[in-house]
Amino acid sequence: TKIDKEACREAYNLVRDDATEVNWVTFKYNGSTIVPGDQGVDYETFKRKCTDDVRLFGFVRFTTGDAMSKRVKFALITWIGEDVSGLQRAKTGTDKTLVKEVVQNFAKEFVISDHKELDEDYIKNELKKAGGANYDAQTE
């Protein structure tokens, strides 16, 4: 497996750039090469790309925090659909190291094959746990 580093880096930087609306991109397989897939602003649209017959990598921007402080957090999501073959499943873990050569800044990494785990609140909650300071208790 190879990765188109330049194209993937451009997509990655779109999500990281505060000046763009883009808050998620996918990296998908084109034969044996990982290339940028779709991108968008709505997390629900990203979730619809995660179908049972594909494996893909998603780099997603979330805004977490509370009334006292808002923070942008990034998640690297490895999606492996339920209908993906065992061999492809196994290769996905190795291929992720290629993606991580491009996607280097993220608060938390997820490997998901169950649609329930793609729930936005679940992921935000996990990012919040990974994020350190939590001022929510002061408002209760």
UniProtKB/TrEMBL annotation:
This is Coactosin-like protein. Binds to F-actin in a calcium-independent manner. Has no direct effect on actin depolymerization. Acts as a chaperone for ALOX5 (5LO), influencing both its stability and activity in leukotrienes synthesis. One of its GO terms (biological process) is regulation of actin filament polymerization. Residues 1-128 form the ADF-H domain. The lineage of its organism: Eukaryota, Metazoa, Chordata, Craniata, Vertebrata. One of its GO terms (cellular component) is cortical actin cytoskeleton. InterPro entries: ADF-H (IPR002108), ADF-H/Gelsolin-like_dom_sf (IPR029006). One of its GO terms (molecular function) is actin filament binding. Coiled coil: none annotated. Belongs to the actin-binding proteins ADF family. Coactosin subfamily. SMART domains: ADF (SM00102). It is found in: Cytoplasm, Cytoskeleton. Pfam families: Cofilin_ADF. Keywords: Actin-binding, Cytoplasm, Cytoskeleton. The gene is Cotl1. Its main location: cytoplasm. It comes from the Eukaryota. Interacts with 5-lipoxygenase (ALOX5/5LO) in a calcium-independent manner. Binds to F-actin with a stoichiometry of 1:2.
